[in-house]
Amino acid sequence: MRIQVINPNTSQAMTHKIGVAAQAVARAGTEIFPCCPQDGPESIEGHFDEAIAAVGLLEEIRKGVAHGYDAHVIACFGDPGLLAARELAIGPVIGIAEAAFHLASLVSTRFAVITTLGRTRIIAEHLLQRYGMQGLCTSVSCLEIPVLALEACDDALIERIAVEGRRLRDEEGAGAIVLGCGGMADLRQVLSEAIGIPVVEGVSAAVKLAESLVELGLGTSKHGDLAFPLGKGFTGRYAHLSR
Ligand code: 5HY
Asked: What is the tally of structural domains in the chain?
């Protein structure tokens, strides 16, 4: 099985970290193909970044479909371009936020999310609403750190996240913690041990869900709104999309 794991920002270091984390949990027969767009923001920290990043993400999905990958993972906690990607894809397309929320809901009655900047809290809250998970989430906690600070995540930052995770466990009754950034892909085990409750990390969650869907023969439905995009002309830099 071959799974494309797309980091929608253009940080090579984060793309590598995400690829290593994805391969670490993949089955022996699963090959992970990490990638990121050539063009776009180095990190995604708001609505504008997400909108720009989505175009590059969709180009990567187009390439992945052409390569015949069995599934695709969108390794950004905003799940940018998820439904548009599903229109293009034949195999399943899994966003790391949706994946993490669902797995957290299977091991706890209430979970909390720990993410980066306060200004992106609303993005996670909108996703909880869209996925019908709002009632299961005690809160979206923000560390007020830039996404790229996770590229050089030291023990002090790990301890900061662990302290917040224990607070959410003790003060809000969270039974599980969801790590709300693709840049936290390498922190699942250390934080699970430090916080003492299930810690769900989106990249690993999405890879395992993708494997399960492929093995069940479940690809993206091509009936209705997720059918391939209607043929039409595109102009300018998108002329190559015309069909
Ligand atoms: C992410 N931004 O997973 C998101 C989430 C965040 O560049 N990768 C990004 O932390 O806002």
From this structure: 2
Q: Which domain holds residue 153?
A: 97-202
Q: How far apart are the CA of 158 and the centre of ligand 1, in A?
A: 17
In this predicted model, what pLDDT tens digit does every residue of 171-206 receive, in sequence order?
999 999 999 999 999 999 999 999 999 999 999 999
Sheet holding 111-115, edge to edge: 137-142, 111-115, 176-179, 199-201
What percent of the chain stands above pLDDT 70? 100
Q: Which residues contact 176 (CB under 8 A, 6 or more apart)?
A: 104, 107, 108, 111, 112, 197, 198, 199, 200
* Residues 145-160, mean pLDDT to the nearest whole number: 95
Mutate to test the pocket of ligand 1, among 45, 123, 125, 151 (most ligand atoms within 8 A of CB): 45
| Tens-digit pLDDT profile for residues 90-149 | 999 999 999 999 999 999 999 999 999 999 999 999 999 999 999 999 999 999 999 999
Q: Whose CA is nearest to atom 9 of ligand 1?
A: 44
- Taking the centre of ligand 1 as the mean of its atom positions, its distance from the CA of residue 106, in whole angstroms, is 24
Provide DSSP, 184-229: GTT-HHHHHHHH-S-EEEHHHHHHHHHHHHHHTT-----SGGGSPP
152 and 233 share one domain? no
Which element (helix H / strand E) includes 139?
strand 137-142
